Amino acid sequence: AGICGSDDDLKNFRAGHFINSNTGWATGHYLGGGPFTSQEYVCKTTDGGIAWVTQLNNPDWGLSSICFINENTGWAGGSNELWKTTDSGNSWNSQVHYFAKNIKFLNSQTGYLANGSNIYKTTNTGENWFTIGNTNGRDISLIGSNILYTVGGFGSMTKSSNGGNSWIQVSRSISNNLLWSVVFPDINTGFITWSGVIMKTTNSGEIWKSIYYDSSHYFNRITFVNNQTGWTTSGQILNKTTDGGLSWNLQNMNQPGSIEGIEFKNSNTGWLTVEPSGFGYYAVKTTNGGENWISFYAYNYHLDNVEIYSFDDLNIGIVANNVSLVTSNGGLNWQSFPNTYSFNSSSRDDGNNLYACNFNQVYKSTDFGRTWQLISNSIQNSVTIIKMVDSNTGYLAGLRGSLLKSTNGGISWVTQNSMIGTQIRSIAVADTNCWVVGDGGIILSTAKGGTIISGITQNNSLSTDFLLFQNYPNPFNPSTKIQYSLPNNSYVTLKVYNIIGREMQTLVSKEQRSGNYEIEFSGNNLPSGVYFYRLEASNFVQTKRMVLIK
Hints:
By secondary structure, the chain is mostly beta strands. About 0% of the residues lie in helices and about 50% in strands.
């Protein structure tokens, strides 16, 4: 507030640059003129920030970055254009139509620009720019004339030691997508689900390899009873594997509906919670590994954040956001126990105790979910997941990327790690090792650190397979995104063809480093119809179908 001659609270800085203790510029936006309008501006101070004078003011530029190399020459960038001034900001001229999240100039000739997808470089004061890297970098740091760092969302960082000619990943993630679920049936073997992909590690998370892909599914739950036998859910679909995830077979539950909670005690006995499209909630049981299922009507209304726990053959509990359902006769009859706690997640320890959390509190139940006792109400982070290992050790994680640990049964919690801006989605524990996965493909683990309390580090390994994923959205109008993954450096071509095989557009044709890539394809100039996109990299060739509907 109080910048550029205004004392209201509607003006906000996005970026600023001072060239000395008195002279500086700032970009920002003003939310005046109505609830859905804004003014973008550049303003200048010559008295150390006490007073500001507006130099640019336009509703459409979306200014978010600024850089000056001396008192006269500078650049301002945003969502539509890159602007340059040579008279201390009194006048500005448009240079190129680039989205510029961050601008850094080494000298009057050489500069760098990051837009969240690519890194660009100029050697002629910004008149022309060329791509020097495909990263999700949003900010650039220059060290001397050759060393560059870029950082982006979800903890990603890249480095160049030769002025941008080549890049290495200082940290990386498996995928730009969110990772939904992680499970470790033993200390070495783990599985992760995201979108239609299932990935596996056999060395405690050192290397993850894609072992299964199905574009028609969106895997959101995965559980294993040993390193060979497991189940995964996708909406109303339940699949089973008996060969360590290499192949999956559809199981018929005889109870249509969305699968929420899943628990298998062994390779034969398991429980699901299923919500049909109409009213009602069911607990579904198998005693022969999923070949046959028996349905038990459990509740009348919609439930959120559902988990199911089988304590023995007779006592089963279902914990949801504001109610617990309990049976003491194997599912024939259910009692409901409402609460007002708004649970985000629940977990069971190695005995019969249940734990649940909302955003800043932890509760415990010793009677299968009938009653709950508040055991911790001093959590400062917005937690959405709880995972108890035993009656003493447990973990909390959530919206702000924080991972917390308790060693006294959930009474007090100590922060283990923080990845600001990353939501953790799932936690797995095997022996004394802990793994968490979340948005942006982030994996954190203690596998290298030994003890759980310390040593949480980001896993830096990618799949060892080439992957080409189904475009999203599909069908699309007018644009769609295509993602692919390279396990090693390769010359890559990605082309789009029409239905008779005529090449319509080349999206990529160059050498690329190992990593994950996302390309946006626009069909603005094409008619509606079926198209194909084809990826060639090393000896890998794959083609997928997409549909443009206008």
